[in-house]
């Protein structure tokens, strides 16, 4: 008896071009926020907030370091600084 074993189960499916569904919604959400900034504020303020926002979204969507997405690297870095790194062992007297 033979069974088919699924491969590449840890890779997300690409939905729209090279983007996964999560990446696609990040790009759309960032575009909507920048469009709202464009209609509500002056041009210098749009550039002040919109350009860094666009760069951060592009980095989140496309940048991978060591095959890991930048969001996962940032989360690991944040956990390193927030969670305790000093562990002590106490022997219990039972």
What does this structure look like?
The protein has 94 residues and is mainly alpha-helical. It has one domain (14-82). It has three helices and four strands. The chain has helices at residues 21-40, 43-62, 70-82; strands spanning 14-16, 19-20, 64-65, 68-69. A two-stranded antiparallel sheet has the order 1-2. The chain has a two-stranded antiparallel sheet with strand order 3-4. Strand 3 and strand 4 (68-69) form a beta hairpin. Helix 1 (21-40) runs antiparallel to helix 2. The longest helix has 20 residues, at 21-40. It is flat. It starts with 13 loop residues before the first strand and ends in a 12-residue tail after the last helix.
Rough shape?
Answer: flat
Question: What's the helix count?
Answer: 3
Main sheet overview: 2 strands, antiparallel
Number of DSSP E strands:
4
Residue-averaged pLDDT = 86
- The number of domains: 1
Strand order of the largest sheet: 1-2
Low-confidence stretches: none
Keywords, separated by commas or semicolons:
mainly alpha, 3 helices, 56% helix, two-stranded antiparallel ribbon, 94 residues, two-stranded antiparallel sheet
Indicate the topology.
Blueprint: E1 14-16, E2 19-20, H1 21-40, H2 43-62, E3 64-65, E4 68-69, H3 70-82
Antiparallel strand pairs: 1-2, 3-4
Task: Provide a brief overview of the structure.
With 94 residues, the protein is mostly helical. 56% of the residues lie in helices and 10% in strands.
């Amino acid at each position: 008896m033979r069974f088919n074993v699924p491969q590449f189960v840890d890779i997300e499916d690409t939905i729209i071009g090279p983007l996964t569904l999560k990446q696609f919604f990040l790009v759309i959400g960032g575009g909507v926020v920048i469009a709202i900034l464009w209609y509500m504020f002056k041009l210098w303020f749009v550039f002040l907030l919109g350009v860094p926002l666009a760069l951060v979204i592009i980095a989140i969507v496309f940048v991978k370091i060591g095959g890991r997405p930048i969001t996962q690297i940032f989360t690991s870095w944040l956990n390193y600084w927030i969670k305790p790194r000093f562990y002590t062992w106490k022997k219990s007297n039972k």
